[in-house]
Amino acid sequence: MELANIEKLVEKYLDAATTLQEETTLKNYFIEGSVAPHLQEYAHMFTYFATIKGETYTKTIELEPKKPKRSNYKWLSVAASIVLLFSVFIGKQEYERYQALKQFEQISKGLRLLSQNLKKGEQAVATLYTYENTVNKILK
Amino acid sequence: MNQSDFLKVVLPFKDKVFRLAKRLLVSTEEAEDATQELFFKLWKSKDKIADYNNVEAFAMTMTKNYCYDRLKSKQASNLTLVHNNYKQKDTPLDTQLEYQDSVNQVHLLIEKLPEQQQIIIQLRDIEEYDFDEICKMLDMKPTAVRVALSRARKTIREELTKKHNYGVS
């Protein structure tokens, strides 16, 4: 394409008045080389646009989210709550047993005291009996 | 709509989504993440997709909005370092090389443009979309798109001419 035409197109291009087709014409002209020296800047621009367009997204797109961390935390909290529940349960059991043991000891201590004192009373009563027996013998 | 139908509709423009995301988010990794995330979102709203007559335009709008959100959150959490890192990686450290690499220069010049102009340049000059489609994607009036595009093109050209002249003298 002749230079005058290209210059006209470039003017239009700067005013953003070119159509896509005209821009393709410009692109082809500038990329193919043999560019007039005073239009060198445009060659840089269009070469850049073309190179950048070659860049692609190479990774595969995954539609299922990979969030193992989050689900881990969820299960961790479930496990923690189970452990907590269990330990509270066990703790309560232990506490009750301890309480019962204490009660048992107290009661048995009380009973022992009672039986000791009863024994004392019995001995006293036994001596009383002997005394009474002797009195009876004498009075008979 | 099952998975293969969905992929048939969606795969043709996955590169365009990726390139737009990369234009805005700058780093390749972020753009890849964004693309993945966007397609997952599209898949989740697949029932609605059937109602849209232009899925591609819808996806591009989504991409633009998603990237804006990402950029906003990045600025909010002061993570602009990613941006700086990239610049150093992409531009050859040797400034002499940079001068010769004029294609790379165009990249840097576009990066300096306002975001909206970047998007329009990307959609028009690289992806070669129709003005009507761009208007729909960006929710802008045709004249506004043309003005922004013209401004962006002129800025790039002027900057290139300037650099070129400095290089010679």
Describe the structure.
The complex is a heterodimer of chains A (140) and B (169). Chain A has 140 residues and is mostly helical. Chain A has two domains: 3-53, no CATH class; 92-140. Chain A has helices spanning 3-14, 20-31, 40-53, 68-139. In chain A, helix 1 (3-14) crosses helix 2 and helix 2 (20-31) packs across helix 3 (40-53). Chain A is rod-shaped. Chain B has two domains: 1-90, Rna Polymerase Sigma Factor, Chain: A; 95-169, Winged helix-like DNA-binding domain superfamily/Winged helix DNA-binding domain (Arc Repressor Mutant, subunit A). Helices cover 81% and strands 0% of the residues of chain B. Chain B is globular. Residues 81-93 of chain B have low confidence and may be disordered. Chains A and B meet through helix 2 and helix 3 of A and helix 1, helix 2, helix 3, helix 8 and helix 9 of B.
The computed structural class of chain B is mainly alpha
Q: What low-confidence regions of chain A span 5 or more consecutive residues with pLDDT below 50?
A: none
From the coordinates shown, what is the CATH architecture of the largest domain in chain B?
Answer: Orthogonal Bundle
> What is the terminal separation of chain A in angstroms?
165 Å
Quick recap:
The complex is a heterodimer of chains A (140) and B (169). Chain A has 140 residues and is an all-alpha fold.
Please name the defining characteristics of this protein.
heterodimer; A: 140 residues; mainly alpha; 2 domains; 79% helix; B: 169 residues; Rna Polymerase Sigma Factor, Chain: A; Arc Repressor Mutant, subunit A; globular
